[in-house]
Amino acid sequence: MTGFTQEKSLLRDYYTALDGADADGIEAVLARFCGPGYLWRGFHPFDEITDLGGVANRFWRPLRQSLTRLQRRMDVFMAGRNEIDGFQSVWVVSMGHLVGLFDTGWLGIPPTGKMACLRYCEFNKVEDGRITETAMFFDIPHLMMQTGLRPFPAQTAAHLVQPGPMTHDGLMFDPQPSAEGRATLAAINAMIGDLGTWQLGLPLEEELSRTWHDDMLWWGPAGIGATYTIERYAKQHAGPFRAAFSKREKTNHICRLAEGHYGGFFGWPNFTATLTGSFMGMPATGKSGEFRVIDIYRRAGGKLAENWIFIDLLHFWKQQGVDILSRTQRSSGA
Questions:
Q1: Cβ neighbours of 284 (radius 10 Å)
Q2: pTM for this prediction
Q3: What is the pLDDT of residue 194?
Q4: Candidates 3.100.10.20, 3.40.50.970, 3.10.450.50, 2.60.40.3500; correct CATH number of 178-332?
Q5: Which of 37, 31, 35 is nearest to 17 (CA)?
Q6: Who's near 52: CB < 8 A, 6+ residues apart?
Q7: Which long-range contacts (CB under 8 A, 24 or more apart) does 21-24 make?
Q8: Counting CB atoms within 10 angstroms of each CB, which of 122, 128, 174, 304 has the fewest?
Q9: Which element (helix H / strand E) includes 333?
Q10: Where are the domains of the chain?
């Protein structure tokens, strides 16, 4: 059994303190739990922040002032050793929604006075009892669409406030069998091996069936959407995505881990690719772009059954010359 008890306890205490702090107390919470040289990575327009005051005042304070009565609703909580550095470092991962009342505008997104959900997933590196590195990915376009804005043309898959695992067993506060984590990591690595360069040579659905259940659930980011079954995933995302891009570089991750039936990874970026066709309803640019991605997976048996995906589409499109935030703000009069 693997427990990572101390690391998980640290993160649970951190979340309790952070979620309970008032606006003026956020930086003190970060100082209490985060180590020297702390690195925070967030989606555009935040990117990398290397000082605690910046994390508190650029991200958490404005968010908390916008989404009042903020609640953290976790669907996955796990820990593991990072395969990328030879299983040396320990990371703790949480995924779910930050839920609040959207009472004040955020990033130029006008408030609604109604309940809103910000999808998030967070990887935290723990060393010597302190958090030393965080990747905090969050789906800003998903929040925008809840307010009635349309940051992108009509997406190919469904827009939903996305549920957690079908099996309701993603909160792994207790130790998990080591063999299950190894099996999950093996399934993820098999999928990466097939996907990596799009050069396996099989028809797409046949390729996917090697590592995915036929009734797979793919919970994609706003602008692309969520889709169900291999056939619809191939039609509504994987096929159009591959048709739109060329020169896909090799996949690179900063962290990749698994615990129990769950696992995931993130990169900065995961890969780059050149937009040579239409994507998300927008034309080809011929430009290369970075994909900063978190993927979280649930394994059932020997294959993958569910996948939650966070892609920094604001960063990608800005590299293509399209500032989605500014464009949407202008069209909404914000």
A1: 15
A2: 0.95
A3: 87
A4: 3.10.450.50
A5: 31
A6: 27, 30, 31, 34, 38
A7: 23/61, 23/64, 23/65
A8: 128
A9: none
A10: 5-146, 178-332
